[in-house]
Amino acid sequence: MAVASLHAVAGCSNQTAIILQVDGPASPAQAGVTQLAFVTSHPTWCDRWVEVAKVTVDVGGRNLAKSPYELLVQPAHFTDLSEDVDLTALALDSSGAVVGSAYFGTHKFRLHTVDKYRAQLLSLARQGSDRPVYTSSDGCVCLPGQPWRGNGSGTGCDLDVVTSFDRLVDTATCELGPGKRELMGPVCDGQHYGDTEPRDRSLPCFATQGAGCNVTARNCHDDNGQAYDDECTPDTNTPALPSGALCAAYLACEQEPCGDLIGCFLDKVPPEIWTCQLRVDATTAAGTPVKPCTDGKWEASLDPAAPALTGAACVASVIEGVAQPPFTIGLQETGQMGAQAIATQCPPTLVVDGIDAMSPDDLPAGKILNVTVGDRVLQLHIAVVRGCATAPSLQCKKGT
Questions:
Q1: N or C: which end of the chain has fewer CB within 10 A?
Q2: In angstroms, rounded to a whole number, what is the distance separating the alpha carbons of residues 207 and 214?
Q3: What are phi and psi of 245, to 5 degrees?
Q4: 262: part of which helix (H) or strand (E)?
């Protein structure tokens, strides 16, 4: 337990404490804020954050710009003062939904010192009925740009706030919950699970913009409990899709807080199965990067009747991003260099920008890649072939 109490600021002489000051909009009522829920969390031996104290205060009608709210946070008598404490204030509307937050970051208590930290109350960009849900009914908090926080129960949502890879390997009771796929493929859940999911990768996401459904990209940080850096917020410059089907599926998963968003999305949209052959030059000299065959490029159309697709039906994305070790693999986009996570080019074209291997023998037998094209999800089963024959370096077709 890192915190003994949270309460309004009183006399502070010779105390060990932290004061949290929330500065906000001139009118919380206009921003829809009626309460602030202060949440204090500490790291566990599993390298995950767990909530240890929470207090909710009424700020309905209060002018936080002129009269900021302050809260005193005190450690318990057995608290390790060298331990980090994560501090945030959730802004709640009249229904109890999170509509914003003031994040103070992580700090330490200092003996016989009262430190004061200020944070601006920032509203979430997406409001209304189609907004994501970032807090679970059983007390977990998983906001973008902040560490995910479990409730310490070891059940329910707490199992979604996963341990780090290092602690999974060497520490008892840090095992993953049932059904987790962190070791089978990239998951944006705030933890880095080896070379299969690089940190700070750009991942597509889907949300409504105006009257339509758009695809955009956001950064998955995947470190120290922080998953996505920000919300999924497309604008008028992001590609529009033919219908709202992918946005509806993605939103349904965003409204299940703290879970595997990508895995949920893939479960909700039945994929078309495609098969691809990726050929590498078997004569590549050891110690030099593997290369394509004599055609000199790994490129393949994802249009089964090219060039039948046009307009929004060509908008494509690589759901788990272009960093797919040992491959850098994505989409070709007119006017852009290298593999892209999102492209609008017709026909949609899969490209391999590079392979991080110094011998054909170092390559895996294959790779499964999930790609959206228009409103569809294509699951590409890519077989690696060592040898060229007369076939192109990359070929894909619908079906097995």
A1: C
A2: 6
A3: -60, -50
A4: helix 261-268
